[in-house]
Amino acid sequence: MIKSELVIVRDKNNNPNIMRRYEKCLHREVDPSVEGDAVHPMFIIRGKEVDAIYLPEYLSCMIDGIPYSLPMQPPATMMDFDSVVECHRRKGDGWHCMTAVEWQFIADLIRLRESAGAEMLRGNTYFGCSHVMPMEHGINKSENSAITLTGSGPESWFLYDNKEGIADFVGNVWKRIAGIRLVNGRYQYIKDNDAAAPDCDLSMDSKEWLDVLIDGKPLKVSVEDGEITILATNEETGKEYGGDEWQNVGIDIDPIPDFVKALGIIPARHEGNREYFYADAEESECVPFRGGSSYGTSDGGSSALGLNDLRSVVGGGIGFFSAYYKVES
């Protein structure tokens, strides 16, 4: 059983953030396809296991240059990737932009709940409303904005009932995450949850980036003539831009290694998955966005993934989540 509790976490300036503390658990507890008793990689940072990770209840807002997880605030936007990394380091040790394995941890919890009969997680995917249930709406941050205030939507926009658990995971703004990227069509990652560490080098030229290797071959996305395929190969692959529903993306990997599952590169549910995957296999580096936005309708969802923009890109529809762990002195 996954143990969690709602808590207030104060940053180095003693300012509050509303977070959810998730206790250390096994990988198979959130993804039943994983065998064995390995600790979930979200709880492994710099080779050591941490007792808990604190994940946000709300999209980050910005106050005096510092990000906060607070309700009924306009989500922070118009920040490039490096600025998002830096603002968390100003907040204090342990604070970081949500990482790929943290995102997938929540995505796996969503899948577990839905497989047990829970209602589908929705969000602001159509200018303040859910495109699936148009009667569901949040509070728009201004008269002319499609974006809603953090946590202002109905229960179906939260992970748990009674408006608890992470809000706006689906839609509202695309969410930046740290720890994976696409380099000339080749997937790279930062091992375990090291992307959360205060000393992790997330720069473009960092030596911490590793190729995702399967049986010694680099994992790549090939985009050619509108066809998208994910495969492990030493051969040259298509170097174009493309986007399509996950159900139309060719996945030539079987079985999928557990560490790749944890990164969320490939969704657990492929067949019938209408959420979108975007990739630019020609760019020298593309950093990820996840979850969809307020204007994307059916392209959003917990497995929606954009690997088609540079780290320098800013936009009014791109935000982020803040996470935390207690750093041992």
Structural class: mainly beta
Number of strands: 24
Number of helices: 3
Give the neighbour order of strands across the main sheet.
Answer: 18-20-22-21-11-23
The pLDDT mean sits at 96
Using the alpha-carbon principal axes, give the shape: globular
Task: Please mark out the parts with pLDDT under 50 across 5 or more consecutive residues, or reply none.
Answer: none
The secondary-structure element order is: EEEEEEEHEHEEEEEEEEEEEHEEEEE
Q: Profile the largest sheet.
A: 6 strands, mixed
What does this structure look like?
It is a single chain. The chain has 329 residues and is mainly β. It is built from 3 helices and 24 strands. It is globular.
Compile the SSE list and pairings.
Elements: E1 4-10, E2 16-23, E3 44-45, E4 48-49, E5 52-56, E6 60-63, E7 66-69, H1 81-91, E8 95-97, H2 100-115, E9 158-160, E10 164-167, E11 174-176, E12 180-183, E13 186-189, E14 210-211, E15 213-214, E16 217-224, E17 227-232, E18 241-245, E19 250-252, H3 258-263, E20 276-280, E21 287-290, E22 305-309, E23 318-320, E24 322-324
Parallel strand pairs: 11-23, 17-19, 20-22
Antiparallel strand pairs: 1-2, 2-5, 3-4, 6-7, 8-24, 9-10, 11-21, 12-13, 13-14, 15-16, 16-17, 18-20, 21-22
